[in-house]
Amino acid sequence: MTDFWTEVLQFAQTTTKDIGTQLIADFGKLKPTRKDDGTLVTQADRWADKAIRDAIATTFPTHGVLTEETEHIFPANDWCWIVDPIDGTTNFTRGIPIWGISLGLLYKGTPVFGFVYLPQLNQSFYGYWYGDSGLTGPTGAYMNGEPIHTSPDDPSKNHLFSICARSTDVLKKPFPCKIRTIGVASYNLILVASGAVLGGVEATPKIWDIAAVWVIVQAAGGVFVSLKAPMFPLKIGKDYGDVPFPCLAVSRADLVPVFEPLVKFIGQGV
Fold this sequence. Notes:
Radius of gyration: 17 Å
Strand content: 15-25%
Number of strands: 14
Low-confidence stretches: none
Oligomer: single chain
CATH superfamily of the largest domain: Fructose-1,6-Bisphosphatase, subunit A, domain 1
């Protein structure tokens, strides 16, 4: 499958680069509207969503697509792309240059390839994680083509843990690390893969927020923990538009019992 994975990576790189160039031109200039779930959306989100769907249909016509802005029902295709055209729309509209384009490729309902591009940081993260799918191919996680790995360090007040805006209740009790809030679900958790933080938690991410980073974190040596029901495989015909996936990512397995008790309550509230 070497040729296939080469095509997948080249597609992700080229498509996100092209889309990102146009989005940079719109950065901080568009007035958002509010969706039914309270999140923001702009004309740029909708344009990027369509452009990515069109690119997938041209390059991988047999693949299914599930995206934040349009297609929420998981299809019956063996291969399916899950797309977040702008992860961090609030940052994008408020002039904060931390936002990204997220592409996850699933095989029979479980992510096996993830790609996240942050145009204004000029950072591309990607990884391969096959689990028990039976697939073979490239392995590992990368930033701008260079291998990345999770941190081997133990928690301390000189280390970082990332939270989302809906998980700030973790601050009500003593925490073993300093806390950071990024405002972009994929980047929040990718920082675990890059070794910048020891862990990260998201209270209400949707499938398009985590499909790509679920792969990248594990490919870099980290552990992804569901704080509610099992995440994968996704179910054919199910509408994932309003389904939250509360989750924890940590840099290695022995830190799960350190951090999970401090954030487990988050999954009970959604």
